[in-house]
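Project outcomes to date are best conveyed with an example. Our students and postdoctoral researchers have been running inverse folding experiments weekly, and each run begins with a structure described purely in tokens. The record below, which covers 121 residues, was selected by the lab manager from last quarter's runs and is presented without edits.
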């Protein structure tokens, strides 16, 4: 859901392919799965190797790492298929997409946290 919202809010980021609504929904779901796999496999390695940059930038390098994960996802979908996530430029487009993705993900997680605290009572 957050990736789809990012494509609506950030110019230069979008989904490519799919003629019907069902195909477009499928593309969004597949890209989300690929993004999840990239975050699960590649992000921990990149984060570990970039610990000095996290310390030097007081954690702001995390935005660059998230932008890199989006960029890798776009690269994978572009080079394995001719549909998926498309990002025009890394520095400004992917960086803004990473910022918006973090904010949207946080906003979408708020109802889940309040539902979890209600169940815990």
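After processing, the design step wrote out the following sequence:
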């Amino acid at each position: 859901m957050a990736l789809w919202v990012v494509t609506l809010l950030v110019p230069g980021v979008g989904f490519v392919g799919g003629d019907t609504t069902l195909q477009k929904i499928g593309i969004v779901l597949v890209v989300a799965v690929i993004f999840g796999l990239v975050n699960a496999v590649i992000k921990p390695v990149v984060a570990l190797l970039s610990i000095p940059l996290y310390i030097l930038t007081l954690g702001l390098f995390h935005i660059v790492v998230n932008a890199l994960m989006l960029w890798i996802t776009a690269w994978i979908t572009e080079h394995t298929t001719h549909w998926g996530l498309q990002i025009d430029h890394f520095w400004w487009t992917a960086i803004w997409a990473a910022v918006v993705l973090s904010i949207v993900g946080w906003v979408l997680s708020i109802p889940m946290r309040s539902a979890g605290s209600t169940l815990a009572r």
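The first strand starts at residue 13 and ends at 16. Helices lie at 2-9, 21-49, 51-56, 61-80, 90-120. The training component of this project remains on track.
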